[in-house]
């Protein structure tokens, strides 16, 4: 996530940005999405927005965004579960003498867990998140749980998602953290 790299205080790039434990790597971006669906200006970057424009946006958009997110949550998590199941299956031990047909492995999993798959498709061949996750794609769902926990700081704060102190705490402790250095 770019925000990690923009506000980091790490001395070396290898300790900044997405160079964090795999189960955590998506949590900051998911937390930022929660702020976007929250109730106000994101103090992380202290982006200027007039109070009038902010109020109009919040009144029109915030409830609609949250309603849409709730309506599609089941589909989202089913999709993530399908991708995580596929990732784990493709990383299972496989006898070296047997042919390895990743499409024959992936399509039935995706069809069983998520949606019917056209047999002529090869989703697995362009599923880029298989590279680098190494049977860790389940981390997306885990990171969402971590982000929900991080959001409780705002939910408990005096000014909710508008709370500058909570936003700066998130910025200092998560986004610009050097703890992995």
Could you please describe the fold and organization of this structure?
It is a single chain. With 181 residues, the protein is mainly α. The chain has 6 helices and no strands. Helix 2 packs across helix 5 and helix 3 packs across helix 4. The longest helix has 40 residues. It is globular. The two termini are 18 Å apart. About 6% of the residues have low confidence.
Q: What's the helix and strand layout?
A:
Layout (H helix, E strand, L loop, with lengths): L1 H6 L19 H11 L13 H40 L11 H12 L25 H18 L7 H12 L6
Helix pairs in contact: 2-5, 3-4
Descriptive key words:
181 residues, 6 helices, single chain, mainly alpha, 55% helix
The total of helices stands at: 6
Number of strands: 0
Shape: globular
The biggest beta sheet, please? none
Briefly, what is this?
The protein has 181 residues and is mainly alpha-helical.
